[in-house]
Amino acid sequence: MKLWRAAFLYDPPTEPVAQQSDQWNRGRELVNGAGHCAACHTPRNLAGGRDLGSRLAGNLALPGGSSAPSIQADDLLADDWTVANLAYALRTGITPSGDAFGGSMVEVVQMNTKFLTPRDLEAMATYLPEGDALIAAQ
Ligand code: HEC
Questions:
Q1: Cys bridge to 76: 81, 91, 111, 122, which one at CB 3.0-4.6 A?
Q2: Which residues surround ligand 1 with Cβ inside 6 Å?
Q3: Atom of ligand 1 nearest to the CA of 102
Q4: Could you read off the pLDDT of 52-108 as tens digits, one per residue?
Q5: Which residue lies with its CA nearest to atom 36 of ligand 1?
Q6: CA 122 to CA 109: how far, in whole Å?
Q7: What is the tens place of the pLDDT at every residue in 63-74?
Q8: How many CB atoms lie within 10 A of CB 106?
């Protein structure tokens, strides 16, 4: 475990990015830190470490055989996600097409994101559709 931690554990970025709004920075901290969104949405290598070159690009091999789609900006925007409908989905589990989240994302909403304040939900929903270009640049 010590070796694995040394190889794969990293602190999420918490230093604010100066040219971004407070809301964006708050969203970045929540998505990459307390929200643990990358635990399922970032692919893992054979040793179980997250592939940091593909942050939030989706994971086709979640434990139990399910998969989590990409939540990188381009993919979210292509799938009609907006700040408003993303914040709504993280609170209610209902997606823009009127469908409901399935798989382990149900638990994420039920046990985590539905308890966030509207301000924090909006912060995550602001960061996600704009965030990955900046993350990749760091
Ligand atoms: C325990 C694993 C897990 C975690 C942690 C997780 N997700 Fe998910 N997520 C999923 C799965 C599985 C799906 C696919 C749901 C489905 O099939 O309906 C999904 C779907 C999504 C989608 C829909 C994407 C699309 O285009 O269909 C969004 C948006 C999303 N998650 C955001 C988040 C955010 C934000 C976080 C962090 C707060 C997060 N997820 C944490 C497993 C997870």
A1: 81
A2: 31, 35-37, 39-41, 66, 68-69, 71, 79, 86, 90, 101-105, 108, 113, 124
A3: 18
A4: 888 899 999 998 889 999 999 889 989 999 999 999 999 999 999 999 999 999 999
A5: 37
A6: 14
A7: 888 999 999 988
A8: 12
